[in-house]
Amino acid sequence: MIVSTLIAVLVVSSIGAALAALLALSESYIANYGECRITINDERELTVQGGKDLLSMLTAEKIFIPSACGGRATCGLCKLKVLEGAGPILPTEEPYLDEKERASNVRLSCQVKVKGDLRISIPQELFAIREYRARCTRIVDLTHDIKLFRLELAEPGTMDYVPGQYVQLLAPKYEKNSEEVYRAYSIASDPAQRDVIELIIRLVPGGICTTYCFEYLKEGDEVRMNGPYGEFHLSDTDAPMVFIAGGSGMAPIRCILHHMKNTNSRRKAVYFFGANEVREMFMMDEMHRFESELPDFRFVPVIAKSDASEAWDGETGLVTDAVQRGLQNASEYEAYLCGSPGMIDASIKVLLDLGVKDTGIFYDKFA
Amino acid sequence: MKQSPNDAHLDAVLRSSALVAGGFMGDDPRRVMEVVDADAGALFGLGVTTAQVAQRLKEITERATRGLGTWVEIDEQYEAMVDEARGLLPCPWPHEGYYPKRVTTLKVVASGRTFRWSDLNIHMIEAHGFFEGKGSAFRIEPAEIVGILF
């Protein structure tokens, strides 16, 4: 009885081992796509070993496509046109592609597996994106869940960017994270300091990159990032402006205000910044300083609820209510918004009601 | 309890940090189906279904969203706030479905005690009966949340 049981176990184990070996062998043949050519903008050709996703292959060639989720099809940022060779759209891509994009062969590059030759189109401006090494030289607590990270660039030593743009910061492997991922953060620093990038980051519970920044990253550590990315920037007009932001949405607005100061901008601007309570307000002195440094700038901090124990003589309520109360003759204004989708949507509604043209509303949505 | 290959794969996905830092299982040594079964038992004992819990969480999230990131009064006892971050999270179960990185925090005004859940939590409770493993960042104790919501 025991012998026959042992023989049965041996036979089953042998069959299993043989099947595993067969699978490994077949994978090396079947999944071996050999050398594939990626033709970019009908100008440049890359020869790569097939089998990986297009995004990571381009990254390996130092061509950086925006991506904030590490290739998991959860951010929808890594879109580019794959004109030939991509195969059908995957279910993972569908939520991010509208009809127009599908018709013009837009794909999520993280979901396109390179199995043969591809012809792709990449916007020229993306070729200017570089990878940077930097040292974290300062971490400042701004509120209980928002910190400022000062990163001094090492290689390359400077970055040229348009105020309002963002970088992608690398979260390396750490105790709670098993693989490297990139996340997008707006640049908050003074663009005149080309060798420094400052980021304002809010802790996302369970967030892979923010957990790294808040719990693991220390002053003196080296970090990697790439960039700059993004279309959020000041228009080239003289129109008066309204900025609306909350929390870490302060970052691109602060950068833009520095830029306005550096360029002696005379544009009229008002900045509504919302927070829950007084202790969640930050950089108030700096923002009020801009009021004296810029010829026509007003900073309007708004807290949702004032506590009797805290001194507050500013605006209270929702930031959108303060905009409604504080903005007159808004039809000539341009609006620049940075914050959560809910805040952006509510702000757009209020701004349209106030007469701001929809073509004059620009935003950086956290989505 | 025996574990099917699919359950074993799911268990590995939930323990990994592929989607959230530290994974969905925390330091819970139980298998995912044991966690689901134990929580289902607790809910049954309380006379509440996962659908009812999910519905109540959705209602609070919807109301709190109107606060644009500030505290909103739910009733005399509770306030809630919604925070949003960039991107979407896919459900770790093998089906399509992406959820905004939106976190609702519910505060008991008298004690200051808080409970939080994400949009993905609501889906995982509603569709999979999963309240996350003990020790995870977003574990919801069924007995506690039922005591608060109903």
Shape of chain B: globular
Compute the gyration radius of chain B: what is it?
A: 15 Å
Please report the total strand number of chain B as a whole number: 4
How many separate structural domains of chain A?
3
User: Residue ranges of chain A: pLDDT <50 for 5 or more in a row?
Assistant: none
Number of strands of chain A: 17
Rg of chain A, nearest Å:
25 Å
Sum up the overall morphology of chain A in one term: globular
Question: How does this structure look, described?
Answer:
The complex is a heterodimer of chains A (367) and B (150). By secondary structure, chain A is of the alpha/beta class. Chain A has three domains: 35-126, Beta-grasp domain (Ubiquitin-like (UB roll), Roll); 129-229, Elongation Factor Tu (Ef-tu), domain 3, CATH 2.40.30; 241-365, Rossmann fold (3-Layer(aba) Sandwich). In chain A, 26% of the residues lie in helices and 29% in strands. Chain A is built from eight helices and 17 strands. In chain A, strands 9-8-11-6-7-10 form a six-stranded antiparallel β-sheet. In chain A, strands 15-14-13-12-16-17 form a six-stranded parallel β-sheet, with helices on both faces. In chain A, strands 2-1-5-3-4 form a five-stranded mixed β-sheet. In chain A, helix 5 (250-262) links the parallel strand 12 and strand 13 (269-275). In chain A, helix 7 packs parallel to helix 8. The radius of gyration of chain A is 25 Å and the shape is globular. By secondary structure, chain B is an alpha+beta fold. Chain B has one domain. Helix content of chain B is 40%, strand content 21%. Chain B has five helices and four strands. Chain B has helices spanning 5-15, 32-46, 50-65, 119-128, 142-149; strands at residues 72-73, 78-90, 98-108, 114-118. Chain B has a four-stranded antiparallel β-sheet. In chain B, strand 1 (72-73) and strand 2 form a beta hairpin. The model of chain B has no long low-confidence stretch (mean pLDDT 91). The chains are: A alpha/beta (367), B alpha+beta (150). At the A-B interface, helix 4 and helix 8 of A face strand 2 and strand 3 of B.
